[in-house]
Amino acid sequence: MSRPSPHRAAPERRPDGRLVVDRLGDDVDAQVVVLDDARVGEGPIREPHRHDYHELFWLRDGAGQHLIDGEELAVVPRTVTVIGRGQVHQFRHASGLRGGLLRFTDAALAGGAERIAAGWLLTGRGGRAIAVPDGEGARLDGLLAVLRAETQRPADPFSADVVRHLISTLLLWLERWYDASRTERRDADDAEVQLHRRFTALLERDFARHHDAGHYADALAVPGPALSRALVALTGRATKELITERVMLEAVRLLRFTDLAVGEVAFRVGFADQLYFSRAFKRSVGRAPQAYRDAARG
Q1: Residue 165: CA atoms inside 13 Å, Cβ hemisphere, count?
Q2: 191-296 is a CATH 1.10.10.60 domain
Q3: Are the C-beta atoms of 62 and 99 separated by less than 8 Å?
Q4: From CA 163, how far away is CA 27, in angstroms rounded?
Q5: pTM of this structure
């Protein structure tokens, strides 16, 4: 029996490095792939690749392991794993995968993740696995089936809005399930929780251009000290620390998975001075950029 692969998007090798970038293709904003006894690892496995789209990986059954941003994660049944745009993914091995993949671009969200209430789920470090509550799997299967049918029918003036609303509905379900499963749960409408989520979406958009905490406080219309207190209460880290963490996450991705020169990596994450970047990277990560790259590649 021919078994579907979780990898269906078109790969593209970047001319400026070794990292493969997966794209959905021209004029494709959303794609649903059905997994029915999919397997990975029976032959050569793909190298780590970067997504130029968001991916929701719904696993009803199966087992395995994958890497997201270099971190090992188990493939866990009855979960949806969120892999945001820009994150680096690799399946190491997997068997008996049943469920589905929903891939979609920012264009399918009509303005980007920051315009969607649950868009914060798509930002930051990858690998957020959300447990699907008992009894909700069938409803999730049904929504994905409707989305798949909608993306495969001839487009009409209503198609984009239908797809957008279906994806937004799924993201809101995921936010509901995520909130319900937290061990130390705060109400989902808690002002600090909502501020943190707005900050996270804004940070994902602006981290390479704005490293100053004041920019985020101004954009969110919140006094700087109040923003920092809210973030510390929820994450244990102040505004500036979270900005630095996000910037260095991107630097780590580029150093580990591409052949870009250190100076180009510095430029892409918002540093005009390579020496200043190298010092900041070493303070954050514990090694100079080139030393980190050498160690990460063995």
Answers
A1: 7
A2: yes
A3: yes
A4: 14
A5: 0.73
* Cβ-contact 89, 67 below 8 angstroms: yes
pLDDT of residue 18: 61
Residue 99: partners with Cβ closer than 8 Å, 6 or more residues away: 35, 57, 58, 59, 60, 61, 62
Average pLDDT, integer, range 17-39: 85
Residue-wise pLDDT tens digits, 75-99:
889 999 998 888 888 888 899 999 9
- Domain-by-domain residue ranges, the chain? 10-181, 191-296
168: pLDDT strictly greater than 80 = yes
Write the pLDDT tens digit of every residue in 94-137.
999 999 999 998 888 755 544 555 677 787 665 688 999 999 99
| Ramachandran angles phi, psi of 89, nearest 5° | -130, 150
End-to-end CA distance of the chain: 38
- In angstroms, rounded to a whole number, what is the distance separating the alpha carbons of residues 227 and 241? 12
Helices (H), the chain: 137-152, 159-181, 191-206, 213-219, 224-235, 239-257, 262-268, 274-285, 289-296
Q: What angle do CA 48, 260, 103 make, to 5 degrees?
A: 35
CATH fold group of domain 10-181 = Jelly Rolls (2.60.120)
DSSP 115-143: GSTTGGGGSSSS-EEEEPPTT-HHHHHHH
Is the CA virtual torsion 200, 206, 209, 213 positive or negative? negative
Residue-wise burial string across 250-281, b where 16 or more C-beta atoms lie within 10 A, e elsewhere = bbbbbbbbbebebeebbbebbbeebeebbebb
Token pair for 265: 């990596």
Question: Nearest Cα to 177, choosing from 135, 215, 143, 230?
Answer: 135
Average pLDDT over residues 127-152: 92
What's the Cα-to-Cα distance from 135 to each of 131, 138, 237, rounded to whole Å?
Answer: 12, 7, 36
- The DSSP letter of residue 271 is -
Report the b/e string of 166-177 with b at 16+ CB within 10 A.
Answer: bbbebbebbbeb
